[in-house]
Design brief:
304 residues; 3 domains
Length: 304
């Protein structure tokens, strides 16, 4: 009996122990589930925090860009207002300014620009075409004072791009040393012919003749031979001021081209006058026409 009771007690204790272990195991499983759930929630929370942080950064970046843009626009508006204010001041004093000498007017505008809150400065640099063209157009005397040596150095840097080189050479060819330095490069190719002709027509003829060694004379003659019609004004300048070099820069073939061109132009002019060119005639060109042209235009109304 005692043995049975002892065995029952042991079984009961083991059962309670197993039950307790099962209960603890269930708790552990529940805790593990909770832990996994919490880890998932923490992961989601972290992702949300990262997303929120990214969104906040984007907002700050956008706000920063908007502030910069607003500052830039404000600065631009401030400059525009400054320029308009300056223009109004000049317009208010226009009548007084026009009574002064041209140099004084230029100096007044220069002083006004220097006093304004603009980026305009009367220096060679930055070496930009538009600003330098502005100085040449409106402040020619100051433009001519730019350091020739520096100008030559800057133009040399542009020679890899022939269009840029030609633009700046045309701009600064009014400086004789610049012209002498780069004149020979007009003939290295057949590009931008009209611009080259403009350069040759814009400088004094003695500059061209002064730089003309045998090579340049040959280049000029070849250029005239290739483009005799476009070079008519240049040829006229030579005939008017240096007729003794006509035999050097011209030949019979060029002269024949000029004769044929003259005949063609006269034929075209006569045709226009006969077919009705009255709308083209005014006091600025009337004296250029021959009597026959006038008769063709005015017909019976013409009274010689």
């Amino acid at each position: 009996m005692n043995k049975f009771t002892s065995s029952t007690t042991q079984n009961s204790q083991q059962t309670r122990k197993l039950f307790k272990e099962d209960k603890e195991c269930d708790k552990i499983i529940e805790l593990q589930k909770e832990n996994i759930k919490l880890k998932g929630e923490v992961s989601i929370l972290r992702q949300n925090m990262l997303s929120l942080e990214k969104h906040n950064y984007e907002l700050r970046d956008e706000k920063s860009k908007n502030i910069k843009l607003e500052c830039k626009n404000n600065d631009k508006l401030r400059r525009e207002v400054s320029v308009l204010h300056l223009q109004n001041k000049i317009n208010e004093n226009k009548m007084m300014a026009f009574k002064r000498k041209k140099i004084e007017l230029s100096m007044d505008i220069k002083w006004a620009l220097q006093q304004s809150e603009t980026d305009i400065n009367f220096q060679l640099y930055p070496f930009e075409f538009k600003r330098l063209k502005f100085f040449k157009d409106y402040f020619y005397n100051d433009f001519c004072q730019f350091c020739t040596k520096s100008v030559i150095q800057e133009i040399k840097h542009l020679m890899k791009n022939y269009k840029d080189f030609l633009d700046f050479f045309e701009l600064f060819c009014c400086k004789i040393d610049v012209f002498k330095e780069f004149f020979v490069y007009l003939f290295v190719n057949d590009h931008y012919i009209d611009k080259k002709i403009e350069i040759m027509e814009s400088v004094p003829l003695e500059w061209i003749l002064g730089t003309s060694d045998d090579v340049n004379i040959t280049n000029i003659r070849k250029f005239i031979l290739n483009y005799p019609i476009k070079m008519m004004r240049f040829i006229y300048k030579i005939a008017e001021t240096r007729p003794f070099i006509l035999n050097i820069v011209l030949d019979r073939s060029i002269f024949n081209d000029l004769i044929r061109t003259k005949t063609y132009i006269l034929t075209l002019l006569n045709k226009i006058c006969k077919e009705g060119g009255l709308s083209f005639i005014d006091h600025t060109n009337l004296h250029y026409l021959s009597q026959q042209n006038l008769k063709d235009i005015y017909k019976e109304e013409y009274d010689s």
